[in-house]
Amino acid sequence: MGNLFNMDNPFFQALSKLCDMLFISIAYIFLCIPIITIGPATTALYYAVVKVIRRERGYIFREFFKSFRLNFKKGAIIGIVLTFVFIILGFDLVYAWGLTEPDSSKGSLLMGVFIGITFLAVSFSIYVFPILSRFDMTVKQLFKAASYMSMRHIPYTLLMILVNALVVVIVIFVFPFIFIAPATATLINSLMMERIFKKYMPESDGPGEETGKDEWYLE
Prior knowledge:
single chain, 0% strand, globular
């Protein structure tokens, strides 16, 4: 019976992680409402989910808001740019769809072009905020890195897009799932994203205690 109520029991550990995912997802949703904070909030979500939920380092809200604060400026800039890009693409897709009836060939051609551009934008958006959470880069370097990685690792990119799409579908049919959906999608995608990041990580000089750096991501 003593082990049943032990906080190190696998059941309680799993329950603790589930609660962390729920709380951080709700915080993320509220922080995305002002629009301008979508970028830094998405960056912080990835950082906190990987560091705390996967690697069990630190506390979920402390790590979340630490990353949110440190990456606010760059995250906000990228988030605003992407917001405008997706709004424009949305209008373009509607326009192309409207052309398919009077002129199917022209409409279909435009639809294909805009769908291709939308795919590139979605692929880019999946990578750019996790990259920002992990690497110290300028905005220009972030754009280059996200564009390169999303195309260089296209199988993983397609899988992560599929994961995000599946999560959206689940939310549509089971709306309460929205309150844990952000962390769920991030956690699943991180299983692939972290494999990609390891290819670009510099070699460690030694354990964190020796280097003075918190190199939890190299463990």
